[in-house]
Amino acid sequence: MDTGLIGAGKMGHALALNMLEHGHRVVVYSRNPEKAAAFTDEGLEGTADLAELVNKLPDQKIIWLMVPAGDAVDEMLEQLIPLLKKDDIIIDGGNSHYRDSVRRSETLFSYDLHYVDAGISGGPAGARSGACMMVGAEEKSYNYLEPLFKDICVEGGYLHVGGNGAGHYVKMVHNGIEYGMMQAIAEGFALLDRGPYQLNYGDVARLWNNGSVIQSWLIELTANMFTADPTLKTLKGVAGSSGTGLWTVEEALLRKVPLPVITQALYARYGSEQSDPFSAKIIAGLRREFGGHEEPGR
User: Fold this and answer.
1) Claim: this prediction has a pTM higher than 0.90
2) Strand ranges (DSSP E) for 8-61?
3) Which of 84, 134, 259, 282 could form a cystine bridge with 252, CB 3.0-4.6 A?
4) Is residue 295 predicted with pLDDT exceeding 80?
């Protein structure tokens, strides 16, 4: 298939190379003409002009967006809509909010265009060598694109989960689960670090990743992390939040579904962004007021 890709960051670039490796022609857009020209060295086609990107694609045009969620997607759609024609397809492969995906699909449908939301998991390595994709789309659009999904995903690694918005909804919940799993791993190793034994955490992680019930890619990555940096001295203890964890918790509140683990994992990330948090000062002050307790280290 001929595909136009917009957003050649780590994920987008890897995805473009994956498509190319499987025999698909990829035209990549970059606002930077020098960067656009450099794609040709990899066998891709580059352009710094959106109209040229569209014109390079035959009927039926497929435009794959890998831009940050939010306004950037809407701004790009505004620029693309006048350049497209009936039955052209836009795929949003970013982590957009599912309600935004529903809204965008309705807007595109009013122009006789089709919208597909593809939640992608596996990071840049997966995008390059075989991703996992959760696809929300009309049946007709999905059937047309399925050969492309099959080529660039791991075996069994793509699924039509429902209509527009469903792909990003499933990806949102996936990311919420990821928050909880990562928090559990982090807490477990924190306890090991305070425990009475001198342990090689890389060895422990490798052990757990061979036949234990918590064997997983995240445990494999934990082993790799400790092998490269046994004391994690190169890391700062700040864990950011991309937004999908918050959306998961908000959706749970709306649906009245208790998510204590995922919610606490989200709070832990927020807490990691604070140094000497104000709330901790309140607690320390109250302990001093009612019991004369001094803060540790004073």
Assistant:
1) yes
2) 25-29, 45-47
3) 259
4) no
